[in-house]
Amino acid sequence: MAEKIAFGESAEMYLKSIHELTDESGVVPISTLAERLGITTVSAGEMIHRLQEQKLVEHKPYKGVALTAAGRRLASSIVRRQRLWECFLSVQLGLPWDRLYELACQLEHSVGAEVTEALAAFLGHPAYCPHGNPIPTPEGRWEPPIGRPLSELAPGDQATIRRVAAVGSDSLHYLAEHGLVPGTLVTLESIEPTDQLRRLRTAQGEVVVGSQMARQIHVVAPDPNGA
Which pLDDT tens digit goes with each residue over 152-191? Predict the structure, then answer.
């Protein structure tokens, strides 16, 4: 079982969070990881040291932490369980979109591979979670994430939301409240020069998102058929 640490988080939560936060460089700053988990950088550093001893992560001085091959395999299995639970909670129980991530986090550490694969079969082996993120295969493979960050759009651009990267419950609630979910067509009306706030227009109305949230929303070109 994953080793429990201070603040109620587990080693599995660390690995999953590193996996979710990893960008093209493959490295996550420890301060960013600590912020995600709601702990101090000192506590995060202590756990990173333990994970490094288990050869699950590699600490790159002055850069951050990266998963090893073994760490990526384990993180992928955790992400698979979590996103399958999100599908179950959404499709079978009809729970709100903005609560799925939080609730699935409570379930992902409770079952092993046998239940996970039975759950996948029951759901029809979905490829994506309700937030639009790919679900790894049992072997740890997955389709490359689709779309580009909304932060890359220029004023006047139209796009369709394809997926929402893992964010906190408050942010997901804000997105759901304003209809910024996968499948929504958005138009970027303006970018404030001082704080980089994005003003968006949807069929539901006008909404403003910050630069960080804009990086977590990934979009694709709108369907020319309007489907």
Answer: 999 999 999 999 986 678 889 999 999 999 999 999 999 9
Token pair belonging to 77: 């299995």
Distance of CA 195 to the CA centre of its chain: 24
> CA-to-CA distance for 60 and 136, rounded, in angstroms?
26
Q: Report the share of the chain in percent with pLDDT over 70.
A: 92
Residue 66 has pLDDT above 80, yes or no: yes
Tell me the CATH class for 148-220: mainly beta
Residue type, 94: G
Class of residue 206 by CB neighbours under 10 A (exposed 0-12, middle 13-18, buried 19+): exposed
CATH of 6-67, one of 2.60.120.650, 1.10.10.10, 1.10.357.10, 3.10.20.440: 1.10.10.10
DSSP 183: T
**pLDDT value for 224:** 67
Q: In one letter, which amino acid is 44?
A: A
Region of 89 please: left (phi>0), alpha (psi -120 to 50) or beta: alpha
For the purposes of burial, counting CB atoms within 10 Å of the CB of 182, is it exposed (0-12), middle (13-18) or buried (19 or more)? buried
Domain residue ranges of the chain, discontinuous segments joined by +: 6-67, 148-220
What the block records as the tokens of 20 is 């979710």
Please give the model's pTM, rounded to 2 decimal places.
0.85
Q: Which residue has the tokens 């639009």?
A: 132
